[in-house]
């Protein structure tokens, strides 16, 4: 019995005296390498804690308080959120304007970007030049200068009305009309199609020509090839661009601020959500209320992104699917 017990007992490995120094040396080398890695990562980690996580937690706390940046915060609990959804009529106006802007600008922008990408994919000479020219508005789209230029283009005596006047049409003052002001911002967003266009162009170049040749052999015309070959194979790229443009559209601020003069006019027709948030924070000094609005915006973007990913299983097709 004693012999069987001794056979079942675990046998500890025998470490020779020569192995221990090598093992301690390896541990020391790993510690120095990890220390060097953390040293190089420390600026990013400090920035993450101090400039990202810290402000995020602080804004959540402030969203539960009344804070005007001049006196200490006063605890309110959920009062800011209750006021937002039950008392603030302009808040609902900002939601309506923002959702309208997102619903119009994102599909039009993606459609325009895909159309231009398909034109550039036809083997044009000077492709790099055209790609740079079309991408330039996306680089400058968030700048104040472009927003000011756009305001001049759609002014009553701007370029658009000058062109219409040559056809005998007296155009309205686009940016001061409640019927057209928002659509000028949608047009500006569509004009900044360069970023999704470049991504679409890269996706188009990855589609094998053999698939198009096989479709032609089967008698498929241009429209059939587009809807049966191009679109299905581009759905992952379309989905990526769609999600990124949705997130960006909900956060649009600079064009509305410049074109509307910072007030969301006329008659709150261009009162974007971010513009109203900015007004509450830095004009009315309701920093607690603005923080609550920011957290609701995070929830809206998160919900929109989640719904996009949930719907992707029904229309996005990846190459490794069986």
The CATH topology name of the largest domain reads MetI-like fold
- At CATH level 2, the architecture of the largest domain is Orthogonal Bundle
| Biggest sheet features | 2 strands, antiparallel
Order of strands, widest sheet = 1-2
Molecular structure report:
α11 runs antiparallel to α14 and α13 packs antiparallel against α14. It contains 14 helices and 2 strands, in the order ααββαααααααααααα. The chain folds into 2 domains: 49 residues; 235 residues, MetI-like fold. Strands 1-2 form a two-stranded antiparallel sheet. The longest helix is centred in the N-terminal third of the chain and has 44 residues. It is mostly helical and 322 residues long. The N and C termini lie far apart (59 Å). The chain is globular.
Summed up, what is this model?
The chain has 322 residues and is mainly alpha-helical. It has helices at 2-8, 19-62, 79-86, 89-120, 127-140, 144-153, 159-166, 181-191, 194-205, 209-217, 222-250, 254-259, 273-282, 287-315, and strands at residues 65-66, 74-75.
Brief descriptors of the model:
single chain, 322 residues, mainly alpha, 2 domains, two-stranded antiparallel sheet, 14 helices, disordered N terminus
Topology:
Blueprint (H helix, E strand, L loop, with lengths): L1 H7 L10 H44 L2 E2 L7 E2 L3 H8 L2 H32 L6 H14 L3 H10 L5 H8 L14 H11 L2 H12 L3 H9 L4 H29 L3 H6 L13 H10 L4 H29 L7
Antiparallel strand pairs: 1-2
Helix pairs in contact: 2-14, 4-8, 4-9, 4-11, 4-13, 5-9, 9-11, 11-14, 13-14
